[in-house]
Amino acid sequence: MIRILFGFVILFYSAAFLIYGAACGGRPSRWLKAGVFLELGFLIHTFFIFVEASAAHTLVPIGTFGEVLIFFAWSVAFVYVVLLRRVRQDMFGVILIPFLLLLLVPAPFMTHGHSLPASYFDDHHFLIHILSAFFAYASFTLSAVAAILYLTQAHALKSKQISNFYKQLPPLKELERFVFYTVAWGFVLLLIAIAGGAFWSKRMVGTYLVAEPKTIASLLTFGVYGFVLYLHSASIASGKRMARVVIFAFMLVLFTFVGTSFLNNQLHVGI
Per UniProt, what is one GO molecular function of this protein (predicted)? Predict the structure, then answer.
């Protein structure tokens, strides 16, 4: 059943991408249909996560690297479909879905990893920590993608080489607003993740702060994105400069989320 559900997840996301592609090709009436397929894919993806968690007798199925990819893809879809419902752009689905498929397709073949101790899930602080962290990184991922789109469109406008693809994109001001909105969501969610992790750490090892790579990198990431928000709010950085800063900050997210997992960690086993 799990394999069948996963196949349907891939099928609906792929169908949504094809319909988005048709809409970009000059059939704007298909934007709504593409959005429906994306949301159906997300709902099936959500059900798949629940079934996978139940089969593994856990609350969050992240025992292998493949499961981490599947859960992260779901987190990105959740942030876009649910948290960003009011500000999301139809055209963004053309970029979002290939990214989701890039995470999902190889996932079943990545079976290596470290199962988290069952005792972790007995603490609600851990659940708050892990879920908020995934959603925060998902928000930062969306902000980076939007920033890349911003720079690409700005370059196309400057060089006056505007294809049909760029004509379908939202105005630069709306893209910049989307970048700021996703960074703000990620910042708040990461704050919640750090707070939940501190209380969980206190229960596990008797201290609120464990000096290990992922903890230090997370605090640094939080500080960098706080600085990004300050630069934008104070009108010090906007437009292309803001987009470049967000992309640079995302490099730190990648290191925090993936890179530190290969270093010596006490509490953060595996991913």
Answer: heme binding
